[in-house]
Amino acid sequence: MNTKSFNPMAGREGDRVGNGWASPRPRARPTGRAVSGWKVIKKHAPDKPGALKLATQWGDALVCVRHRLDESGQTRVTTVELVVEQAPVRARGAQVVGVQISYAEKDLQAAARAAGATWDAAARLWRMPEKVARALRLADRIRDGK
After folding, report:
1. Are 100 and 143 in contact (CB under 8 A)?
2. Which residues of the chain fall short of a pLDDT of 50?
3. pLDDT value at position 33?
4. Measuring CA to CA, which residue among 119, 74, 72, 76 is closest to residue 100?
5. Are 109 and 101 in contact, with CB atoms under 8 Å apart?
6. What would the pLDDT profile of 12-54 be if each residue is shown by its tens digit?
7. Residue 127 · residue 115 · CB < 8 Å
8. Separation in Å, CA 55 to CA 28, 38, 43, 51, 90
9. Are 140 and 132 within 8 A, CB to CB?
10. Are β-strands 76-82 and 39-44 bridged in parallel, bridged antiparallel, or unpaired?
11. In this predicted structure, what is the pLDDT of residue 4?
């Protein structure tokens, strides 16, 4: 992917008709007002009518095209959603913690064992992912004994 910053308005001063994206009628320029709160009236996938012209301009980076109306209903804007970066997601390993469960709490030990916990005899703690400890409401019993 190109690492240079992208300015969609760059070079649009003398738009010529017939270059694939300009039209013969003058277009309204963005006002600088935030349009995120405007009501979405239409949403098009890149391969659907209403987005094909923009799909030729933006290519595979185009995710969708939205038409929005301002609060007064007098102004419509067309927005595009683009992919600007793609990276693999690395899953974090579940952090294993030691949880103190007393010998007399047989039901709690059984619940921990059913959730995949194992007994660490050297540390005298039950080992389980922190997520499991929180789901069993044992967060207050987490100990450091590694």
Report:
1. yes
2. 1-5, 7, 9-19, 22-24
3. 66
4. 119
5. yes
6. 444 444 445 544 455 555 565 677 778 899 999 999 998 899 9
7. no
8. 20, 23, 14, 6, 31
9. no
10. unpaired
11. 46
Give the bridge partners for 120, in sequence order: 125
pLDDT (0 to 100) of residue 28: 58
Please state the φ and ψ torsions of residue 19, each to the nearest 5 degrees.
Answer: -95, 10
Label each residue of the chain as H, E or C: CCCCCCCCCCCCCCCCCCCCCCCCCCCCCCCCCCCCCCEEEEEECCCCCCCHHHHHHHHHHEEEEEEEECCCCCCEEEEEEECCCCCCCCCCCCCEEEECCCCCCHHHHHHHHHCCCEEECCCCEEEEEHHHHHHCCCHHHEECCC
Query: What pTM, to 2 d.p., does this model score?
Result: 0.44
Neighbours of 110 (CB within 10 A): 10
- Give the pLDDT of residue 12: 44
Which pLDDT score, from 0 to 100, does residue 89 have? 83
